[in-house]
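Many introductory courses stop at the sequence. We go one step further.
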Amino acid sequence: MQRHKSQITIRDIAREADVSMSTVSRVLNDYPHVDSQTREAVWKTAAELEYSMSRLRGQNSKAQRTMAFLSTKVKEHADSQPALSGGIEQLIVRGAQSVFEDRRVATHIYQSFANNDQMADVVAANHISGVIFLGGTFDRSLLRALQAASIPFVTAGGHAYPSDVNSVMANYVQGMVFAVEHLVARGRRHICLVNGPETSNTSREKYWGYRLALSLCNQSFEVYQTARGANFDVGSGFDATVALLDGSQPVDAIVYADDGMAVGGLKAIRETGRSVPDDIAVIGCHNYDFARFADPALTSIGFDMQMMGRLAGLRLCNLMDGAADDPHVMTVSTQLIVRDST
């Protein structure tokens, strides 16, 4: 049965014209960087299918672009509006939105969809021009789906190695070097790492940085010196620290993959009868606001999270304007904020 013209979507046009949905959206919204032959084919197909042009947001709608933040850490409030649960993600979004507001780009926050077709439908239905993925864990099948649809995206908070994509992240390797150098200068010689889950790309960055730092400081490494939490939360930090201190191996400093984990570690250290920093020095990561209110105040690896968002936003705008250069991997510098825990 023939479909009514009001039911025709850009997916239908893309299928008939044998192009991506992103290309159809670019043509119908008069975006640049589409060759004339493709542009003509899309317009011809749209006309043949009697696509309702009144559904477009305007013939020159560059100023009305819409982009989406996709996060695996989203929870629903009573008003049914998604809200980011992670502090780092909130600040990344705030930084990116400052870029989009200047360019009159509308933004929405969505959960990551397990079903790639569902995600593609949502992106198409909302005329989404680009996507920023938040966090350090990315479903590569979702990234490939966006690439196949020619929808530009940037990962913010972590990379997606080995995928060759645009990304912005903190220079965790640098941060770990700063942390270990500081501890060695304070006389610590048995420096351990309580890391996050292996599924997070940022965990791998922190581990590489930790191992590099030990080597640069001429410190030996033993397998017992690393423990891993199930998540980046207080409970995971507590459990991993208990396991780390349960043996007879010496520990005089611990670097944590997240400040929340470090707070759990502080409690575990106290419960084993040790003190911070006299017996064990502690360093967290991300320098959240609560770090300075911990007991003792937490030394932490910090960086400008809003800058990370601004860089991601600027790069995405560049991609939406048709930039065809190689993917960029950008890092934001870190610093060590020294407090009472070391």
